[in-house]
Design goal:
This protein is mainly alpha-helical. It contains 18 helices and no strands. It has two domains: about 200 residues, Vanadium-containing Chloroperoxidase, domain 2 (Orthogonal Bundle), CATH 1.10.606.20; about 240 residues, Vanadium-containing Chloroperoxidase, domain 2, CATH 1.10.606.20. This is Phosphatase PAP2 family protein.
Length: about 500
């Protein structure tokens, strides 16, 4: 058994060593910027989960001439007079758009927990359990479906919370401390967005709440980051304590609604027991005459999340309505032609194709394909100088589409249960690790196409390049030898189709 663990450990080291730079979460270097638009009417936008911006009710703030408010002003001035170097660094880190920073924290945690549990001494496997997150193995295993869901709930909760905050900002219209007291020097680019309630506080608390549920072993770390963020809001000169308290109140209310949905969306049943998995496999064989086999040693009794395709979607009522056409039968000319295409790629691998396969690998120890597209979105947000509300909208719709696309993809994977190339081509070798779930359609293709379509909608000037990236991500899996070409092409169409449902919702939210 010792040899088995040495082999598994060596494989893990190689996987992590070969993860390209694009796979590793990184700090986006940017300073505060003047927002391109304040979105004064943002409080009228349609939320995703809330019944409306006023579904969370907060009390009117004290006036800027009240004793209570003037005391708060004096308090932050005293704190700012005694600021230390670490606090200055914190203010610089969080900037005036913490949507990016909390997304980066999520990507960091996804990468940290994207490690597949190894076998036990008796060749069995133990699944991560949210009820005993310490394990072994530790919870969660943040594979692509898990990552897509974590990012979706984080982004949707941020978006809904900020819509509510924006509504009350412009209802009560209380200026920021630095606008009320000329002696207060604001750390960021000035703007005319009212400070009550604090949008930064909404982001800090809602992000901490959602990510603490998704990554329960990181509660202490997330609480520390939240505390640091909330303190920076005061020390920046942008908020007083009552601004922050109101933002936290909104965040707690929105978090509760989001986490209630998460608790009942079906994800807890996604990693089906062996009997259910075997029945899905048998049904596919009876239906089509083929079935995917897990070639991993020792064999895992169940592939990755066979019932993720049953998880509740955001913008689509029935996953079967977006199920793609069947893949070619194993005795068809289309299948035989694809065998030759894959063999040709394997026998004539070029440095360019290998580089493309490596760039889009997004395997174990990385932030997964959904995370890759979140990184792109972060960069576009900063480049476009979006305010936090519009940034959260971008992330919410993109991650809703990515999660819906993943659910649709997993529905197809286990409905069709199509074999991987390595299973049906004798002696075939891959340059990428073969995942432990069926082939059709390609997850990378579906995730990437969905993300690129939403980004093309929000950033039309980027449409050509993001769609080209999605097609490159799709073909990368074919170059790697782990997918058929039709897995990639049909998966790309599937992701685009699913994303259109999300875009249709976005077009009606009042932001365009």
């Amino acid at each position: 058994m010792k040899t088995k663990y040495i082999i598994f450990g060596a494989i893990m080291v190689l996987i992590l060593a070969n993860s390209c730079e694009k796979d590793i979460p990184r700090y986006t270097e940017f300073k505060s910027y003047a927002y391109a638009n304040n979105d004064e009417s943002g409080g009228n936008w349609v939320p995703v989960l809330l019944d409306g911006a006023t579904a969370v009710d907060i009390a009117p703030p004290e006036t800027t001439t009240s004793t209570a408010y003037l005391t708060e002003i004096a308090d932050i001035k005293s704190k700012m007079d005694n600021i230390n170097d670490n606090q200055r660094k914190s203010i610089e880190y969080w900037t005036n758009n913490a949507v990016v920073r909390w997304n980066e924290i999520a990507l960091e945690l996804i990468a940290k927990y994207n490690l597949i549990p190894g076998p036990n001494d008796d060749d069995t496997y133990t699944l991560p359990n949210p009820n005993t997150p310490d394990g072994p193995p530790g919870f969660p295993f943040s594979h692509p479906p898990y990552a897509s869901r974590a990012l979706a709930y984080l982004s949707v909760a941020q978006f809904d919370g900020l819509i509510s905050a924006w509504h009350y900002k412009y209802q009560y219209n209380r200026p920021a401390p630095y606008q009320n007291d000329a002696s207060i020097s604001y750390a960021y680019e000035p703007n005319d967005i009212p400070s009550y309630p604090s949008d930064g506080a909404v982001l800090a608390r809602v992000s901490k709440n959602i990510l603490s549920t998704m990554f329960p072993l990181e509660v202490a770390y997330l609480e520390r980051m939240e505390k640091e963020h909330l303190e920076s809001l005061l020390l920046s000169g942008g908020n007083v304590q009552s601004d922050i308290d109101a933002g936290v109140f909104i965040a707690n209310s929105v978090s509760e609604i989001a986490l209630e949905r998460a608790a009942n969306d079906g994800m807890k049943n996604a990693q089906a027991p062996k009997a259910v998995s075997d029945s899905i496999k048998a049904a596919a064989f009876e239906r089509f005459g083929w079935q995917w086999e897990n070639l991993e040693l020792p064999v895992r009794p169940v592939g990755l999340t066979p019932l993720f395709g049953k998880v509740k979607m955001w913008s689509i009522d029935d996953v079967e309505s977006v199920r793609p056409i069947p893949p070619p039968s194993l005795d068809s000319q289309e299948y035989r032609d694809d065998v030759e295409i894959l063999k040709n790629y394997a026998d004539n691998m070029t440095e360019e194709r290998r580089a493309i396969a490596n760039f889009w690998q997004d395997g174990l120890g990385t932030y997964t394909p959904p995370g890759h597209w979140n990184r792109f979105a972060n960069e576009f947000i900063v480049e476009s100088k979006m305010n936090p509300l519009r940034s959260a909208r971008t992330m919410a719709y993109m991650n809703m589409a990515i999660m819906d696309a993943g659910i649709s993809c997993w529905d197809a994977k286990y409905y069709y249960h199509y074999p991987r190339p390595i299973q049906t081509i004798p002696g075939f070798r891959t340059i990428a690790g073969t995942p432990n779930f069926p082939s059709y359609t390609s997850g990378h293709s579906v995730f990437s196409a969905a993300a690129s379509e939403v980004l093309a909608y929000i950033f039309p000037e980027k449409a050509q390049i993001v769609r080209a990236w999605a097609e490159e991500a799709a073909i990368s899996r074919v170059y790697g030898g782990i997918h058929w070409t039709f897995d990639a092409t049909v998966g790309t169409d599937q992701g685009r189709n699913v994303a259109q449902f999300t875009i249709d919702v976005a077009k009606l939210d009042g932001a365009d």
